[in-house]
Amino acid sequence: MSGDYSPFTLIELREEAKKRNLPVSGTKAQLMDRLIEDDIASETNGIIISQSKFTEIKQRLGEPALGPISLGGVIAFGIALMLVSTVLIVRPAWLGFGEDYNYELIDYDQNSARQFAENLVSYGHGDWEGRMSGTSEERNVSEYILSEFESMGMKGTLHSFEVPMHHVNSEPSFRVCLRGFNFNPCDGILAVGSDVTSFQHRIDYVIQGFSGQSEYTFNQDVQVTDLGNGSDDGQWSQATGTIGYLRSGGTITGNTDMYVKAVENDLAGLIRVNKDYNCGKIEGNDCVPIFKGSSIDAITEANGGSVPTDIPFIAMSKDAGDLFESLVFNGSGNAVVEFLFDVTNDQQRTIYVPCGEIEGKTSEVVIAGGHHDTVYHGQGAIDDTSGTASVLEMARQISSIVNQTGMPDRTIRFCTWGGEEEGLYGSRAYVDKFKAELKDDLRLYINLDMNHVDADFENRGNSLRLFTNNADDYDHIVRITKLYKEERSDVATKYEIDTLLLKGEKGEQNGMPYNSDHGPFVYDISESYRGRAVVCYGSGSWEYHTYLDTLDRFNEESLGVSVTIYGTYMRYLAYNSEM
Question: Which of 298, 322, 344 is the last residue of a domain?
Fold first, then answer.
């Protein structure tokens, strides 16, 4: 094989490069350039280039052929061309100009990723299915992840941290009773004519982050106050001592602000009804209730320095809310509520961070991570079983490469985080503990959180966003993405893969967001230091933070995009310590 390589396939070009002991990575054009350069060196022995070969070189340079000339003459011509040109400088890599980054895409096994995901889900709560931070489910899944790292030949470490964490102790009860004749009791043998409606936990309502406990029975007759959409401060002040009922869509949009209002006005409890999110998308025409956390610092400040332990906070679905309204606000006035929530929210609990490490020749480190915890009431198949399964598959592939290639220049570390759903507690605690080491040695942090695309492209889209806060890392990711689209086109063509550079300051529109576990690595290591991170977000997760986020919609193929691109960059950084 020599001369014109354009008719040959990428695989054929790689085979020829391999025969000549040349690098086999890169695009088709890069491999063609590499082979032509080798042809020049072997055919001329550094003395002269034939007319046909010189013609080919000049055609590549975009200039007319002049006749036979020495290799030194070609180089001299190229240098002269660069010196006289003020508009365009032609610098082909095959003549020694520019960077040849020599990327080699790592492999990805979607069946392996699927198995990791299924294993992770199997550690969920027996009834509620979640792996809530601070629970035995989270501890057990952390130990499983650690064992996987160690089975890959890594040095395993299980970090633990004591952090503020609420805990749901038992199944709650939320019922409404329409009392019968003469306001008969709602329970027992005297409950003649009374009609009790039970709302189903997880489906009709979910407990919110840092909710308090309550033991409000029918006999206590705790009143419910309609707060509308929460925009009227007067309605809040009139709700003191009652359970506030709040429809979404007002000026108060976040759980923290809602809970603070409940604290400031001394409410007995709070119900937020979902009237505008995921409506009609995943369960008939309903708007399924979602879990959201609250800022414990803001709540504590509003409560005078401590966490209020007796203000339960739940979110209801639209359909369940409509039924509740018809019973309580539009009925005959004889409705009473049972509100039983066994929640501990004023203590610390242990969360876990399992890590696997491949030691390098230097202490400089590249870290990849995702969070293994989920909301308490669901499998969290996408958020973030997908990311943790991706980390495990990336770790498996990189470990295999190291076993074949030898010790990397940089240290490689894989970690998964507990406490993400309640406030990034795991990654924040880890960064705080190792901030001195990270400031000196962290080269890059890779975050995989919902790096997944639902298979329903027609209705949910097919996009993946790869973004970073560093221009050099961005350039590499763009190049590797281009290579991925060429070499793995059978998968790549199915997805819209976007790359984005976010160089702004924290909180700015063009800045790296602080909304997942990359945040502490970027912003918390030091006030004067900005860590470098790359992140992937997927699309189509309408089931986010609901009980319907299950493996039924899991698309393991989509995880391969970010695993391959970021894993390839991790591999490159591991063996190129000057970058």
Answer: 344
